[in-house]
Write a structure and sequence with these properties.
494 residues, alpha/beta, Aldehyde Dehydrogenase, Chain A, domain 1, Aldehyde Dehydrogenase, Chain A, domain 2, 2 domains, 16 helices, globular, binds nicotinamide-adenine-dinucleotide
Length: 494
């Protein structure tokens, strides 16, 4: 196995100052072994007050406020360079803190650097509008920063989800107060140090680890926070939306999913099987877009499932830092136990466990938060197993008969984050893609991302989009300016 764990200093970033948190200390666990990696102090609601006040001052400081877009973009490029220089250290830290494979965390770090570069480019190339003239005045629509933005992140892909919030918010001229998830503060703090050392003006970034009900709640309800960007579960997202409604504050919500992946009878079986396995079992299923409901045309259902189960049973489950591991531990034993309870529920609902369905029988993995990749069938789409987000390596398979039956089942979900279609018939794929209720549809591929393509959910999967040119607009306010061209006084006053 490669790379020893290197602890991060027990300090949080409050408006440009590194300090020990004054909140309670929390243990950070290596989910691969259950060992305590380090103990970190957390932030308090008072720290949120300080961070917001210093953030507001930093946004108003002419040294930041008056920067031209290409000058602000330089900071983002510098941050991207610094992330790339520290890439291996960040990837290793993320692997220790989340359990993920190094191959995956390296990809997430590269994507974080790419996100800063992309938003630097968007910033430099964004146009503002001179709207059509309707009188003796010029009319313009310009964009201005919101002020201090609150960013609340989940534990599944910290470095990438942090960058997805920090980069566009800074690009649009804001300050950011970020709260990482309780289980995974280390990478966010390491990223904050990199950003700080890259020379970002003091006060523009705070990173405040702590309890959601304390620090998260204080951020959302703070009168000085002008927008919240939240990624996490639908239940928490709904609470954030309620608080935002009280304040009449804009909010972006990236929430949960129960995404359907669909195999039509003419699909390339090997391609579909590998794509479906990657879609659900990579990241050990802890991915909002995991393709967790599989719909297969009844005419090929038996053969297709047999091949899928045969390959799934051969997946290599092991430590994230061991070369060759495909399915790493889950983020925390508590979360693994919640996944195990869902598989028990599936059994109670009458589901057949075709493979997996328990923890690995391997002494080496005994203390880690491992769970075997699991395929279940024999349930109907209205069962709880098919309707609730499990957020683990658990795939439920269902047959369908014809397009109408397929669409009725696939769209029968409170979620609408993503969907996948495997077929050789592009006309049919297009038709289905347009009728699926999902923010993203993949055709003959799955779980691929492009920072230049907007991402967001519909229904209970979210509100608003991240990424793409729209991603930066979400962190600004539109202002209209009228520039009068009359030489004479307004005759109305005479
Ligand atoms: P979670 O909702 O439990 O927590 C998310 C964040 O919210 C954490 O930082 C938590 O501390 C904070 N929080 C909790 N209570 C809060 C409160 N009252 N006020 C403010 N903040 C509060 O989610 P999780 O378990 O960390 O992450 C898993 C969930 O995230 C899954 O549902 C997954 O689908 C979703 N997710 C969605 C996307 C997406 O882009 N759509 C991406 C990744 C994860």
């Amino acid at each position: 196995m490669s790379g020893e764990f290197e602890s991060v200093p027990d300090e949080i970033l409050i408006g440009g100052c590194w300090k020990r948190g004054t909140g309670p200390a929390g243990e950070v666990i290596d989910p691969g072994t259950g060992a305590v990696l380090q103990v970190m102090t957390q932030a308090t609601a008072d720290d949120v007050d300080t961070a917001v006040a210093l953030g507001a001052a930093a946004v108003a400081d002419p040294a930041w406020r008056d920067l031209l877009p290409h000058q602000r973009a330089r900071y983002l490029h510098r941050i991207a360079d610094a992330i790339e220089r520290s890439a291996e250290r960040l990837a290793l830290l993320q692997s220790y803190n989340t359990g993920k494979t190094l191959a995956e965390t390296r990809g997430l770090v590269a994507s974080a650097a790419g996100t800063f570069r992309y938003f630097a480019a968007v910033l430099e190339t964004a146009d503002e509008d001179l709207t059509t003239q309707r009188g003796n005045y010029l009319t313009m629509s310009v964009r201005e920063p919101i002020g201090v933005v609150g960013a609340i992140a989940p534990w599944n892909s910290p470095v990438a989800s942090d960058a997805q919030k920090i980069a566009p918010a800074l690009a649009a001229g804001n300050a950011v107060v970020l709260k990482p998830a309780e289980w995974t503060p280390l990478v966010s703090l390491a990223l904050a140090r990199i950003i700080d050392e890259a020379g970002l003006p003091s006060g523009l970034l705070s990173v405040l680890p702590g309890r959601g009900s304390v620090v998260g709640d204080a951020i959302v309800n703070h009168p000085g926070i002008g927008k919240v960007t939240f990624t996490g579960g639908t239940r928490t997202g709904r609470m954030v939306a309620h608080a935002a409604a009280e304040k009449l504050m804009p909010v972006s919500l990236e929430l949960g999913g129960k995404s359907p992946t669909i195999v039509l009878a003419d699909a390339d079986v090997e391609q579909a099987v590998s794509g479906i396995m990657y879609g659900i079992f990579s990241s050990t299923g802890q991915s909002c877009i995991a393709g967790s409901r599989l719909f297969v045309d009844r005419r090929i259902y038996g053969d297709f499932l047999a091949r899928l189960v045969e390959k799934t049973a051969r997946l290599r489950v092991g430590p994230g830092r061991e070369p060759g591991t495909q399915v790493a531990p889950m983020v925390h034993a508590e979360h693994r136990d919640s996944v195990a309870r869902y598989v028990d529920l599936a059994r109670a609902e009458g589901g057949r466990i075709l493979c997996g369905g328990g923890i690995p029988d391997d002494d080496r993995l005994r203390d880690g938060a491992y769970y075997l990749p699991t395929v279940i069938d024999g349930l109907t789409n209205d069962s709880r197993t098919c309707q609730e987000e499990i957020f683990g390596p658990v795939l439920v398979a269902l047959p369908f008969d014809g397009e109408d039956d397929l669409l009725a089942q696939a769209n029968d979900s409170v979620f609408g984050l993503a969907a996948g279609i495997w077929t050789a018939d592009y006309r049919r794929a297009w038709r289905l893609a347009r009728r699926l209720q999902a923010g993203t549809v993949w055709i003959n591929t799955y779980k691929q991302f492009s920072i230049s393509t907007p991402f967001g959910g519909v229904k209970e999967s979210g509100l608003g989009v991240e990424k793409g040119r729209a991603g930066i607009a979400a962190y600004s306010r539109q202002k209209s300016i009228y520039l009068g061209l009359d030489d004479q006084p307004n005759p109305w006053a005479d």
